[in-house]
Write a structure and sequence with these properties.
The protein has a single domain, classed as Up-down Bundle (Growth Hormone, Chain: A). The radius of gyration is 22 Å and the shape is globular. The longest helix is centred in the last third of the chain and has 35 residues. It contains 18 helices and two strands. The protein starts with a helix and ends with a helix. Strands 1-2 form a two-stranded antiparallel sheet. It is mainly α.
C-alpha cells in the first residue's frame, strides 16, 4: 500500500529529449500556457477553503458564543500547521510529481472543511458535557484540529507551483510570470470573500465551508488532467537551454552527483540572504493576515458596516492587491534592474500610511474606506510576493525552489499565527486601535530589516566588483 502511494506521488523520470525543434517549440508553447493557467486557477481555488473563515468569523462568533481570543486560537491552528507544512512539503515537492501532489492536496483540504463544519453540527455548546469538559471547549478543539489539518494540506499548494514556475520559465521571464501568477493570491482572497459573503447571507455561516469544499473537489479532479511535472518528463530540454540563456552560476556548479542535501545546505541553511528574507516575512504576514482575517470584524464592530458591505470592502483589498503584485514585479525588473529590496521599502512605507488613513476614516466615508482598503491590499501584495517568493527563489537554486519557498513560508506563517492569535488578544485587551498599532509596528520592523538587507547587498556587490 505504501509502495503504491509512494509511486503515485513520485516524480516521473526524464525521458529522451525530442530532437525535432519545431515539435519542441510547439510543445513548449502549449505546455507553458497550460501549466501557467492551471497553476493560477489551482491557487485561486485553494483560497476558497482557506480564507472563507475570515468572512465567517462574525457569524461563527455569535452562533457558537466564541470570544475574539478563541476565534484567534482557531485561526492560528491553520497558520501553525501551514507554516511547518510549507517547509516540509516544500522539500517533498522538489522530488514529487506536481500532477498528483497538487490536486490530492486540494481535495484533502476540501474534506477538512467538511469535517470542520460537520463538527459544529454534532457538538452543540452548552448542551452536552464530554469527559467532564464543557461542550464549548470540546467543540473549539475539535474545530481547531480540523482547521489545523486543513492548514497542512493547504501548505501543499504553493511548493509544487513554485517548482513548476522555476522549471517552465527561465530567469529573464520569471519575474514577470511570477508577478502575474502571484495575483492568484489576491484573486483567490477576493473570490473566497465574495463567495463566502454571498452564501452566508443566503444560507448561513456553515455554507461558507461546504460549498467551497465541493468546488475544490471538482477542481482537483480537473487539475489532474491539466498538470504535468518538469519539461524533461515530456522529453523537452531544460528551459534555459531552450531559451538560449546562461544558467545561474550557483546552478552551473551543481553536478549531478551533488546531493540534494548539499544543495539545500549551501543555498538555504548557510545563506544569510534567505535568513533575512525569512525574518522579514514574519512581519509581512502579520500585516497581511491581520487585515485579511480581521478587517471584516473591524468594519462590523467599529464602523457599524453590514456584513455584505464589510465583505465588499475586504474584496477591494484583495482585488486591487493583485495590481500591487504586478507593479512590484515590473518596477523591480524595469526600474531597479532586478533589485527587489528598494520597491519593498517603498511599498511598506506606503502601507503604514494607508493603515493610518483607513483607521482615521471614522465616522466612515464608505467610498474612502474602499480606496484605503484597496491601498492596503496593493502595498501588502508587493512585499508578500517578492520577499518570501521571488526573492527567495532568486537567492537560492532552482533545484531547491520549493524548499526555499517552504523555508521562508515557515517564518511567514509564524507571523500569520502571531497575527491571528495576537490580533484577537490585542483587541480583547486594548480595543481595535491596539490592533491597528500592532499592524503598523510590524510593518515598521519589516522596513528596518529591508534596509539591513539593502546594505548587505551593496557590501556584497562591492566585494564582488573588487575581486
Amino acid at each position: 500500500m505504501l509502495k503504491k502511494l509512494g509511486a503515485f506521488f513520485k516524480e516521473p523520470p526524464a525521458i529522451e529529449t525530442i530532437k525535432d525543434e519545431e515539435k519542441v517549440a510547439s510543445m513548449y508553447k502549449h505546455w507553458r500556457w497550460r501549466i501557467f493557467y492551471s497553476s493560477f486557477i489551482a491557487y485561486v481555488v485553494f483560497h476558497l477553503c482557506r480564507k472563507n473563515i475570515a468572512v465567517a468569523l462574525p457569524s461563527m462568533g455569535k452562533a457558537l458564543n466564541m470570544s475574539n481570543t478563541e476565534l484567534g486560537i482557531l485561526g492560528s491552528t491553520l497558520y501553525v500547521t501551514y507554516g511547518v507544512g510549507k517547509f516540509i512539503n516544500g522539500v517533498v515537492a522538489d522530488k514529487s510529481n506536481v500532477r498528483t501532489f497538487l490536486p490530492t492536496a486540494l481535495i484533502l483540504s476540501a474534506i477538512c472543511n467538511l469535517c470542520f463544519v460537520i463538527s459544529a453540527f454534532l457538538i452543540t455548546p452548552g448542551h452536552v458535557s464530554f469527559f467532564g469538559l464543557p461542550s464549548a471547549t470540546v467543540l473549539l478543539w475539535v474545530m481547531a484540529f480540523f482547521w489545523g489539518a486543513n492548514g497542512w494540506f493547504q501548505s501543499c499548494g504553493f511548493p509544487p507551483v513554485a517548482k513548476s514556475l522555476s522549471y517552465w520559465f527561465s530567469n529573464s521571464e520569471r519575474g514577470t510570470k511570477w508577478s502575474l501568477w502571484s495575483t492568484s493570491h489576491q484573486i483567490g482572497v477576493f473570490a473566497a470573500v465574495a463567495l463566502s459573503g454571498f452564501v452566508i447571507d443566503k444560507l448561513g455561516w456553515q455554507a461558507a465551508f461546504y460549498i467551497p469544499a465541493i468546488i475544490c473537489v471538482v477542481t482537483g479532479v480537473w487539475l489532474f488532467d491539466r498538470l504535468r511535472d518538469k519539461p524533461q518528463t515530456l522529453g523537452l530540454p531544460d528551459i534555459e537551454k531552450y531559451n538560449n540563456e546562461p544558467v545561474k552560476p550557483t546552478e552551473k556548479d551543481e553536478k549531478d552527483d551533488v546531493s540534494y542535501f548539499q544543495i539545500f545546505k549551501e543555498n538555504i541553511l548557510c545563506n544569510p540572504v534567505i535568513w533575512m528574507l525569512a525574518i522579514a516575512y514574519i512581519f509581512v504576514y502579520i500585516i497581511r493576515f491581520g487585515t485579511e482575517d480581521w478587517l471584516v470584524k473591524y468594519l462590523v464592530e467599529v464602523k457599524q458596516n453590514s456584513l455584505p458591505m464589510a465583505s465588499a470592502k475586504l474584496s477591494s483589498l484583495a482585488l486591487v492587491g493583485s495590481a500591487g503584485a504586478i507593479l512590484a514585479g515590473i518596477i523591480s525588473d524595469k526600474v531597479y534592474k532586478g533589485n527587489r529590496t528598494p520597491i519593498n521599502i517603498v511599498f511598506l512605507v506606503c502601507l503604514i500610511l494607508s493603515l493610518l488613513a483607513f483607521a482615521a476614516n471614522n465616522p466612515a466615508n464608505h467610498l474612502m474606506d474602499y480606496v484605503y482598503a484597496a491601498m492596503i491590499g496593493m502595498f501588502t501584495a508587493g512585499p508578500q510576493m517578492l520577499i518570501g517568493g521571488l526573492c527567495a527563489v532568486e537567492s537560492s537554486s532552482k533545484k531547491v525552489a520549493s524548499a526555499s519557498i517552504g523555508f521562508t513560508g515557515v517564518f511567514g506563517y509564524i507571523g500569520a499565527a502571531l497575527s491571528s492569535g495576537g490580533t484577537g488578544f490585542v483587541v480583547d485587551k486594548f480595543g481595535w486601535n491596539g490592533a491597528i498599532a500592532f499592524w503598523c509596528v510590524s510593518t515598521m520592523i519589516c522596513v528596518v530589516i529591508c534596509f539591513i538587507l539593502l546594505t548587505y547587498e551593496k557590501i556584497r556587490k562591492r566585494k564582488a566588483n573588487a575581486n
